[in-house]
Amino acid sequence: MIPMVAALILGSTAATGNAESSKPLYAPTKLCAELLAVTTDADGDLHHSFKMPNGLLVDQVVPGKTFDPATASVARLAKVGLPPRPASGAAVSDGLSRVDWESIVRGRTRAIPKPPCVKPGVRAAIYNNNYSGYRAAAASGEKYSGAHSSITAPSYYLSACAYESMTQWVGVSNDSVLVQAGVYVDQYTGTVDSGGFIEFVGGTWDTGGVTDVGVPYVAGHRYYLDVHYADRYNWSLTVSDLDNGENFSGFWTHPSGGGTQYLQPFAYFISERLTYSVNGGPGTLTQYMSHSDVRFRTATAKIYGAGDARLSIQRPEQMIMLSPGIGNQRLGNVDPLEVSASNFTEHWARCGVVE
Fold it and tell me: At the top level of its lineage, which domain of life is listed (predicted)?
């Protein structure tokens, strides 16, 4: 039996109180970050500093002219938000190869940072029966400090169902707090909105909704998604298009610390619908959006104080999407995990059809 996961708390509303949407509640106005400053550090790298509506600070670093990814120090790579440099010529089956890594680098070096923008009350948080994919469960006494994967963004179909959405994301959670990064497509208000996003749910860093980070959504493109803990003041979050170099990578900072509250025992690799709420009220599930298969590659959790570990050796649990609105019948289906590479494919039923 697959265990049910407790709902993430938005206010005090439980997941079982949520209904599937019949009409839009409202069209949220995006609240964008304020640009505070652009500064240059000793390496010549540019820091674009933003302040979010909830007080979080965001530092997006654009490498300077002296930056050479082939020779840059580990510290400088980490500063600009790059994952470790693969060996030259490395080709990881279905994962992040040296070619993919260099694509991320190109996205960093030509980035023109945009202010992140929150969609208040629009959540991509875990609700019972509302997600499809896998989660890793840490060993007793251990916690995760990050998660990363590459995905192939699915094609989506605007169909007979209305008020629909989808997201694909990775994150770390205990099912009360969550830090995540991913991509979304949303038609709930009648017009299509899409892109890369990050979100903190619960705790003192709560963003108040999904936060668009300015990376366009392109069906069929591969995206690298990463969240990882830097220190108690900072989390590093990345959404990077591996095919065209569009990129967001930034350090999210709380001046009072508290980053350790997001070190948690579960790492998630998920497809999910959005929820909408007004003034902190009960969340309303959007309808599920018809889309092609989603491919997750090299799903990896980062063990706090240790290092990366593939999902396949972290007690993986399969998550199945059900619909509360139609008697908890199945909406999504996940293929068995490919153990050697920790890849998997996730499917959704067509809009209005139950598997």
Answer: Bacteria
End-to-end CA distance of the chain: 18
CATH superfamily to which 15-348 belongs: Peptidase G1 (2.60.120.700)
**Pairing, β 209-212 against β 117-120:** antiparallel
Would you kindly state where each structural domain of the chain is located, as residue ranges?
15-348
* Alpha helices (runs of H) in 140-245, residue ranges in sequence order: none
pTM: 0.87
- Give the list of residues 6+ apart from residue 71 with CB closer than 8 angstroms, or none: none
- The DSSP call for residue 7 is P
Looking at this protein, which amino acid is placed at residue 160? A
Token pair recorded at residue 115: 């202010």
Question: In the Cβ-directed half-sphere of 202, how many Cα atoms lie within 13 Å?
Answer: 23
Query: Over the chain (355 residues), what is each successive 10-residue block's mean pLDDT?
Result: 26 36 68 96 93 95 87 84 71 62 71 89 76 92 95 86 88 95 92 94 95 95 94 94 87 96 96 82 78 92 92 90 70 86 85 52
The neighbouring-strand residues paired with 294 are 346
DSSP H or E segment with residue 109: helix 98-109
